[in-house]
Structure formats: C-alpha cells, structure tokens
Amino acid sequence: MKTSHISTSVIKRLPRYYRFLFDLLQSDMTRISSKSLSERMGLTASQIRQDLNCFGGFGQQGYGYNIKLLYEEIGKILGIDTIKKAILVGTGNMGRTLLANMDFHSRGFEIIGLFDNKESLIGENISGLPVRHIDTLDEFCRENLPVAAILCIPRNHAHDVAEQLINLGIKGFWNFTHYDLSVAFPDVAVENVHLGDSLMTLCYNISPKN
C-alpha cells in the first residue's frame, strides 16, 4: 500500500527497517517485538509502531511482527518487488565504483545502459554493458524506456542532461553531481547524494565543541 501523505522522514526510515529485517532473517529469527526491534535500531518502540501504522500496521498484540512477512511488505511499499529500468550517465571513477559494488537488482533497479561523452570510453565494457556515446541517449531511451537515471557527471552539465532525460520519460534521479536537481525540477523524484556533506557532518561530530 502506498499513500501520498506519508512524511519524508518515515519513507527515509523504511530502507533501514528493510536492512535490519534482512539481517534478522539471516539469523533464522521468525518474529520480533517492536521493543526488541527498537533496541536493535536505536529507535523507540512507539516510533516503529507509528511508522508502520502509516501503511496499515503489521504486528499482532502479544506476538509482535512476523519478520519475513514484514520484510516482504516493506519491500513492496518501497517498490523493490517490481524492477525498474535505469541508466547511468558518467562512467568515470564514481560511476564505475557504483557499478562494481552496488547490487542494484536487490534494490529495485536494473541498469540497462551506460553513457559518457569521452570518445576513449565509448565501446568499453563495464559490468557487462557497453559504454554508449551520450549522443545516442535519445534513441536509446525511446527504444528501451528507462524510468530512472544515475548521474555521475560534472555539475555544469547536470541541468541540461537532466532536462533532456526528463523529456525522454525519466521519472527519478540518483544524483551525484552536486547540483540540486530537486530545486530545478521540483516535480521529479530526486535523491541528491552529497558525500562531502556527510564527511563534514562527521567532522563536526568529532570536533571539540565550544
């Protein structure tokens, strides 16, 4: 079940629930109480119940949660049960690292095309896919209908490439460009990834406070 009124903070916690439940399944646990789950995740039991109740609730009083069922239901809520076609634009260091280390399929995506504008990279095989020239983007998207794009390109190209892709039917971006696409394109789903911001947050947290 998906609803439009769920807060962003609740949605952002769902992948964490999904990850913790997967770990519990690997340990052969079959059920867990909200209290036990809260202790493992560092949340309150009330918060967990409130979050899950946004989607109808999945626990039984006196029993707790069936771990396998809850794991599967959260996967459906996240949309992981239906694989979406995605492309990656920019096959430099970041793009290659993602392709080598990220299990896209288990997170709901299939990478079907790689694109770059460097002539020396065109035709190179990365993770089983050929790198295509960015000039072929229009034709490829019209033929293969991807719905998501991963952008690992320089900031100064982000707006134009995103606009082109939106016109080609892309509905969401995993954006590593440091250009905030959500401001420029408010009606498109965007996950901006700022690794530098995360590192500076760590710096703040370990620095002496005045």
Question: Secondary-structure blueprint of this entry?
Answer:
Blueprint: H1 8-26, E1 31-32, H2 34-41, H3 45-53, E2 65-66, H4 67-78, E3 84-89, H5 93-101, E4 109-116, E5 125-126, E6 129-133, H6 137-144, E7 148-151, H7 155-167, E8 172-175, H8 181-184, E9 189-192, H9 195-206
Parallel strand pairs: 3-4, 3-7, 4-6, 7-8, 8-9
Antiparallel strand pairs: 1-2, 5-6
The global form is globular
Low-confidence stretches: none
Largest sheet: 7 strands, mixed
Radius of gyration: 20 Å
Beta-strand percent range: 15-25%
Task: State the separation between the terminal residues, measured CA to CA.
Answer: 47 Å
Mean pLDDT: 93
Q: Helical content, roughly?
A: 40-55%
Description:
This protein is α/β, with parallel strands linked by helices. The chain is 45% helix and 18% strand. It has helices at residues 8-26, 34-41, 45-53, 67-78, 93-101, 137-144, 155-167, 181-184, 195-206; strands at 31-32, 65-66, 84-89, 109-116, 125-126, 129-133, 148-151, 172-175, 189-192. The protein has a 7-stranded mixed beta sheet. A two-stranded antiparallel ribbon has the order 1-2. β8 (172-175), α8 and β9 form a beta-alpha-beta unit. α1 crosses α4 (67-78) and α2 (34-41) packs across α3 (45-53).
Q: Summed up, what is this model?
A:
By secondary structure, the chain is an alpha/beta fold.
List descriptors:
single chain, 210 residues, alpha/beta, seven-stranded mixed beta sheet, 9 helices, 9 strands, 45% helix, 18% strand, globular
